[in-house]
Design a protein that fits this description.
Layout (H helix, E strand, L loop, with lengths): L2 H7 L4 H15 L7 E4 L20 E4 L4 H7 L5 H7 L4 E4 L3 H11 L4 E4 L16 E3 L3 H8 L5 H24 L6 H14 L4 E2 L4 E4 L20 E6 L1 E3 L2 E2 L2 E6 L6 H20 L6 H18 L8 H6 L49 E4 L2 E3 L2 H9 L1 H4 L4 H4 L7 E3 L2 E5 L4 E3 L7 H8 L4
Parallel strand pairs: 1-4, 2-3, 4-5
Antiparallel strand pairs: 6-9, 7-8, 8-11, 9-10, 12-15, 13-14, 15-16
Helix pairs in contact: 1-7, 2-6, 7-8, 9-10
Amino acid sequence: MDQQSKILEGKYPAKAHCAKVASYLQTRSANAAGNAVIYLEGQKTVLIEDNDEPRPFRLTLFIPDLNPDSVIWSGLPLVPPEALERYDIDACFPNSQLPARLSSLAQKDSDIRFYVKDIPRDAFLSLAQTTVSTDTKLLHPAIDECRVTKDSYEIALLRKANAISTIAHTAVLHAIPTARNEQELEAAFVAACISNGAKHQAYHPIFGSGQNAATLHYQHNDQPLSARKNILVDAGAEWDCYCSDVTRTMPLSGSFDPDSRAIYSLVQQMQSTALALLKAKVTWETLHIRAHEVAVQGLLDLGILKSGTAEELMKERISVAFFPHGLGHYLGLDTHDTGGNPDYGDRDTMFRFLRIRGEISEGAVVTVEPGVYFCRFIVEPYLKDERTRRFIDEGVLERFWEVGGVRIEDDVLVTKDGYENLTTAPKGIEEMEKMMAGGC
């Protein structure tokens, strides 16, 4: 049994995660010396009709009561003994006991403080007539920040999600020769995930062929593949609520034409350059700028950009016309995971859409996903602007519209002195073309 499987045989470290949040709250709360309760409610699933000496720390999980009518339709839900077996928690009770147990805590310690996210529902309101101290502001940012770094169990879950995504991306490569439209390739991906135990996608998959690949979050996935050069596949499996997020750009003919090959090579250089700089305490902005510098030089070498030095083009932010999004984001329970502190009001177009700002912590998992796109909606305003049009050679650019867009995205664990790539899906011109030609 491999190390990943051994880790996942154990209980989900829920108590350790809550202790991490509790430690955060203790360092930032005016009530740090007193006892406290962290109260966090889950969200109900909405069904569509017809279809120095550490203080003792305890984690109690409350789950829905057994509803006989629901059992008839959906089978037995999770029950307390199963929850105690699956999760590292101290106790588990039905929701019906929650009001009484919360009231009991408040009665035993009048100085106890409750940390609550947002406005709680009825179960917590039983305390409304007491003098209990409640903080509704600190828990949310505490959870957001503590989710940034991952423990070994979470990393094992992310590896598992990536391993299934590798199988699914490989299935797409093998399906391309006989596929007629984007949805057939999406079906191949989803089928591979489900057959390997991942019933849910981490996000809506993106299967954009031809110029559709220039739309960053293309959604239709239903267009014919004929007479198109490439397809951008941004899709990832979810495993036990943890996400993978992987993008590959594949040649529909089995091999990249010269223009597509040139752009793919440029994007791969952008990614490898950023990865070479990635380590704990580096700023995300540093990596993002470096990726843009590589893009500028590459577009100059191809003749798409002209009439200026690389430094001048960087100052004018011309590369944003072709690389308009951020370099990546945190990854975990959400695809765009918490803690990035983005500043979408930034007036600098190069940084406006960065989902991560500032230093990266050891133990964080990030995506590194540079891209170069030929989107008329984005590029044409630059061609109409007298200040920026002189930097773009429209004659050369004309050749590249049909390339659409190229993005390469991997999920990466940040270490003290570098990184570990969790993504093993086929990547690179030679590897993908070999596989599509019937290689391994």
